[in-house]
Structure formats: C-alpha cells, structure tokens
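Memo to structure team: turn this sequence into structure tokens by end of day. - J.P.
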Amino acid sequence: MLVERDQEIARLNRLLFEGAREGSRLAVISGAVTSGKTALLHTMTDTAGGRGVRVLPAVASASEQKFPYAVLEQLYQGMPAHLQRSRPSPGLEALRDPNGPDRAELPLLQDFHRTLDELTGDAPLLIAIDDVQFADLPSLRCLAYGIRRCRSEALSVVVSRGALTGPAATALDELLHEPKVCHVRLAPLTIPGVSTLLTEELGTEEAGRHAAAYHEMTGGNLLLLRGLLDDRFSRLTRGPLDPAPGTDAPVAGELFRQAALSCVYRGGPAHRRVAHGIALLGDATSVPLLSRLIEVEERLVRQSLALLTEVGILHGGRFRSDAVRTVLLDDLELHELGPLHHRAARLLYEEGADPVDVARHLLSHEAPAPVEEWITQALCDAAVHAIAADRRELAMNCLQMADRYTTDEREALQLQATMVQAMWPFNPLSQMRRLQSLAGPAGSGLLPAPETIPVVIGLLGLGRMDEAAAALKQLSRAAAEHPGTELDTGLRAIRLALSSTYPDHPELWPFLDQEDDDGPWDVPLSPDQTPESPHLTAFRALRTVLSHGVDERAVRAAERVLETVRLSDRTMLTVHAALQTLVYADRHATATTWCDRLIEETSERGAKALLAYFCVLRAQIALRVGRLRDTVRYAERALEELPARGWGVTVGMPLGMLVNAHTAMGNHDAAAELLARPVPDEMYRNRFGLHYLYARARHQLATGRQHAALTDFRACGEKMAAWGLDSPATLTWRLGAAETWLTLGGQERAARLAEEQLELAGESSSRTRGAALRVLAATRPRHERIAMLQQAVGVLQASGGWYEMARALADLAEAHKHLGDLDTSRLMTRRALRLADSCGADELSRSLQRTPARSALSEAARTGEDTAAFSELSDAESRVAALAASGYTNREIAAKLFITISTVEQHLTRVYRKINISQRRELPASLDFDVAYTA
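Reply from structure team:
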C-alpha cells in the first residue's frame, strides 16, 4: 500500500499517459533509501499495462554495474523475438574489449534507436528502470542515444534513482537533468502518514495513539517502520513487544536494527563509514572532527549527514534511536574499533573536549604500546570529573587504567590514594587493602601531601595510630613549607579532630591542637583578614561543645557551616563535625532537619558509608530525646549499610546507641548479644568508645551488676576528664554512677555526683539539668522530692527529654503515693505511662501498669464518692473529663475528639459543677475509664 503518494502518482500519470505532448517523455523518481521509489515505479508500470502500453522493465544493481549492456539486455528481453536478435551480450568477453568496457559501439547505438522507433510505431512504450544509478555505462549511453533521437510521442521513460555517485554519475547527470525531464522527489512519511500505515496492523485507535512515537523513532522511513512493526509481532519474542509502561515509545528489536543497518549499507562504503564514525562519537555536531576521525573529506561527510537525516537515521546530528548506534558499533570489526577509539580520544583531547568523553574512548580499548603521555593525564582528568558527578564506577575504571599505564612511582601512589578517596564514602571495605598498602609511602613522604590527608583519616579509623603518626609527621613538614595553603588548613582541621576524637594516643600527642578552642567566634574581621575556613570552624565548634558544654556562638558557627558547605568527598568530615556540634548541643529540631536531609541525599547517591555515619547521628538524636524505637531503627540501618568491620575503631558509636536503646526498652537479651560481639581494643581509646562504655554501664546497672556498672561509669569519667571532654554535652556519667550508688545504698555519694552534674549543667533548661534534678530528688527525704521532681518535669518538658521526663513522672507518682495523694499519683502514673509508651520504653511502661485500672464507679464506691454525681455526666462530658484527668491539655482533647477548644472548656465547666470541684487537678484519676476508647 502506497501511503501519502497520491500527489506524485497523479503527476506521473499526467506526464506519462495523459495530455498532448511533443516527443518522448522522461520521469525521474528520487528519494532517500527505502522511501518507496520502487513501489511507485511498479505502480506506474501496472498503470501502463492497464492502459495497453508496452512495458520494458529493467533493474540495475551494483553487482552488475561492471558488466557492459547488463541493463540493455534486460530491456531487450521484453521485446518481440525478432527484435531480440540485435541485443548485445553482456559478460566476461565484453570486459576484455580492447576499446574499453565502458564504450558503446556505434552500430549498437543505432540498432537500439531503430528498435525504439519500430516499437513506438506500433503502440505506446514505457521503459522503466529501477535503481538507475547502478546502471552500466554502455547501457546508459545507448539509452541516452535512443531517447534523444526518438521523436515519437509514444515513448515514455520512468526511472528510480538513489544518490548520484560512482562511475555512472556523470552520464546519469547528463541524461536526467534536461529541461523536459520531470523530477518527482519522495519525502518520508508524515505523522498522519505513519498513522495510516499503522492502522492496517494495529487498528485505528492504537495507530493514532502510537503514530507520533513511531515517527519520532523512524523519521517516517518505510523500512524502519516495517522493522518496528515486525519486531512487535515477531514470534522470536515471548509476546508482542508493546511500548514500555507509561510511554508510547515502540521497542526496537532485531528486525528494526537490521533494517537500520540495511539503510546505512545501501548508501555505499563512504556513507557507511560516516555512520560508523557518528556511532563512535555519539553525535555529528562537529563535522571537522568527524571528517578527521574517519579520514573522509568534509564535503562528503556533509552529504552523508544530509542523506542519513533524510533517511530517518539521524535527527539534529544524533541517532533517533540508541539501537541504531548500538548495531552500527557492533557492525565494526574489532581490528577497526580499537584504532578508531584511540584516534577519537586523541582528537577530542586535542580539542579540549569533556574529559569524560575522552575517557569513554580510552576505556573501550587497550592503548598500543608504548603508551602516549597524554593518555594517563586524560584518564586522571576524567576521574576528577566523574567523582564530582558521583559516577564512581567510571572514576575507578579511569584510575585503574591510568594506574596500569603509568611508569612513575609517585604518580602510581597518587592514583591509588585517589581511588581510596573516591570509593571510601561508598564502600570502605573494598578499599581496606589499598589503604593499608599506602600507609608506608605516606609515612615515608613518597605519597604527595594532598593525597596523604585522606590516607591519615582512613588509618585513624582503622586504629593504625603509629602509621597515622608517621604520615602526620610528613604532612607537618610539608605544611610548614607552605603556610596558609589548603594543605595547612587541612592539617589544622585534623589536629582539631584528633583533640576531640583521638586524644588518648601518645604517638598522636605532638599533633593535637593546643590552641584555645574558645576563640572569638563573633569578632568582626578587619579588612585585611580572611574568614576562617569552614573546615576549621566546624571542628573548633565541635571541640568547644565537647569540652565546655553548650556554647551559643559555637552552635551558630556550626549552623553557618551547614548552610554554606555542600556535602562532597572533600567536605564530608566538615559537614559531619558541624552536625555533631548541633547534636551534642541538644539542638534536636535543627539537627534532625539537617540529618534527614543528608540521609536522603546520601541514600540517593548510594554513598553507603556516609549514609551510615548520618544514620548513627540520627540514632544519637533519637536517643537523646528519648525516641528509643527510632534509635534502634537508625542504628540498625547504620550497621546494615556499613557492617561492623567497616567502622573500624569507631564501631562503638552504632553499638553504643543500640545497647543504650535496648537497655532502656528492657530488651536486655538483645543488649547482651550486642555487647558479646568482638570489638577492637583501640575502640576504648577514642570518643566513640566512650558511648559504648557508657551504654555497657547502663546495661550492667539495669541487669543488677552494680559494681561492674560503677567501674564502667568511673572509667568513662576518668577518660573524659583526662581528654578534656568532661562536659554535660558529652555524656552524663555522673548521673549513671549516682543511680548505681542509689541501688547500693550510697545516698551521700549519689547526692554528691548528682549535685556535681547539676552544677555543670548550669541554670538553663536542658535535658541534662532535668535528669540531674530527677536523680538528686531520689537522694532527698520523701517530703522534699515532689518540688524537685516537678522542677525536673518542667525542665525536661521544655528541653524535649521525653524518656527522662517519663522517668521523672514515674518518680513523681511514687512520691505522691507515699504521701497519700493517690489521685495525683494516679494522674502522674498515667502521664508517665502515656509518655513511656510513646518513647518505646516498654520496661518502664510495664512497671507503671502493675496496678490494674479500676472503673469510675468502682473507684467512686471505694472512696465514698457520690456515684449519682458521676451518673449525671453526659457521654461527651465523661470523655472530656476522662482525658483531662489523664493529663491531656484542652488543645489535645479538642484534637482527639474533633471538637473546638471552646467546647472542651464548656464541658469541663459543667463537669466541675456537677461533681462539685473547682479546678482541673481535683478531677479523680478514676475518670480515666474512657481514655482507651476516646483515643
């Protein structure tokens, strides 16, 4: 079926078969490869046959172009027998003609002319030649001689042709470009044309829906369209190749790829070479580059680009379908592909192209020996760009190839260090061996100083302190020679990090930062001063908070770092230090916002190690505010993303979070299992080990091993004091020891420790101050406890220490109970129970539920309350009163019952009147009978 060819058919019919005319007529059908030229030619011959016109058909082919008279011989075959005696004989004998195979003898020319005169004298004649560009020269000369001399209006000639290239181009140009020749150029199908073609196969609805996508992929090329349709219904597939879900894009299969290859091959060798070059480069945006790559003249390259675009292979210099590019690359032989890739890489490098594009070609083959110097540099440049774009696999491939090619030892070490730095945030375990192999060169000064910094950080994390110290010695020498440089700043940041994280190693003491960390945070800079590096600011802020407690200036400085520094390989420790500052300073809301944002970012990037580090910080935030289930969830995720072996000597942090949370929840078996796991001895000599030691002490206290707990709490305190980290922001070891002494009957010692912690906490509302008040209250006589515990509850509510607040409420309930105030005791118990449940403190929750609840009526009967008064309450009043008795605020009650605050107040006023009380705290605790229902 011919689609969108009605106009062309009508024009050819008028020219060849209709209207008055003078002499013979010639029509030329041209168009891109597979545009339907042959089909239109056949339509013309069929029309001629239907009108009684004699048709002499011939098909030229490239394989017969060297045989003289091959096309003419086909024309003679359609003539009457008596005329066939004059036909020439193509073959090998003609090729040996001493006058040349491309010459046409005059007698043959004259015979052909006489033959045409005789045929047109009897009836109209149509000569139809397909692919005339492949016709042999003698046949073309005979044809031209006969047409020009035949004056009969009965003669019509129609030919189809492709590109005018090759030996016949000149002769064809003379024949086909005369004033009386009619040219019909076939364009690719439009989208409506594609829709018409698809209707036969897919139906009207599907054709209309997919036509644009099919056109986009084929450019309206009939052969490519046919390939796509055949792929869709091919029996070689398990089912129809439907478009991808959610798209209208057709799926390119093997038949489509072969059709595309056929379109390219039909254009000839030069055409094919251009297509291969474009496939190799990825596009044809630079014609000079493409020309140099494939060593073809720019003029010919531009011609091929135009043809490839017209045929539907290219659009805007790029392949319409990646499948076409793939099949063209597969079509190249291996011995061709390697040199082409190498030449492409060199040309791109010389032009200053994107290093990643250069590397793509270099990685596709092994460079021939000897390796040119520019190759290693190009690969290193590409690795830097790939790392910046988070394309780690590409970066590693570039670095590994550069490492294979380099012959310089220092450059090889530099490449190894870059590999470690590139992959450490994603998979530290894969780089352990490589990092350890760099320890020696880093300590001897063979490794360049900038690459030594990440090696030092890695060695510290593995607990290889001697090797880290040797490398730091080399760094110090290099930094002394270049003060004020980025290297000097990096070394100072490491010194600050050592003083706050690894202060217990004598071999590292020469490198600890000894400057006053309580620096002038907010002093304006003079015009000749430069701002402090964010790296130094972050680590200085962290050390300030760890050493002296919460410092608002340090907190603001850390927040500025987070606002101005983007997370990257070079800044990950800076961002981590700034965020730690907020966590230790109990800026929970801000820290949570930043932490969640960084967790999402690192998760999307696939940076497992970074994700694990931020998950641990998120677990620490959750533990400090008392969200125990969240603590477990985030800490377990941290160990899932980065197994314990990958944490090295910092594994105490995730394990400490888990042990602490499980202990508070009452999951003592889980905590014991975690503590039974082997940990490196070096872990106890850094700040992260303090969290593990403190968590172990809490577990021992909870499981009745008071003396072991006391030993660990004391060890914690001794280390913190020796390291200059004994601040309330770090760990409250004194409160743990005080609680332990309370269980051992040492009231005075417990009181002394709690008072010390309270003094360190200061007067501001903080989680530490609230916890200290709670513990100190336990050392006081019963009648003095209530006021101190109420103060503790207020401080903890203001600071957001929910687990500690639940414990304080539980102690307050017990204190009221001992003083005989049972109603207030029950109210505090219910508040504590509600808070313990929300925190996930299951053990505390179970202890608060030991006394079974009583109904309102039974409680009223037991205490002699007027049951008639309770019966007067409406259902709505009862629900509001029950929630109020359980400690809910008016706003919370309104939200739970979906009513306004004003309505709550009105219900409470009526309740007070009916049961004869004057204030909220006089509501009997027995009114909680409906809380479970209303919640």
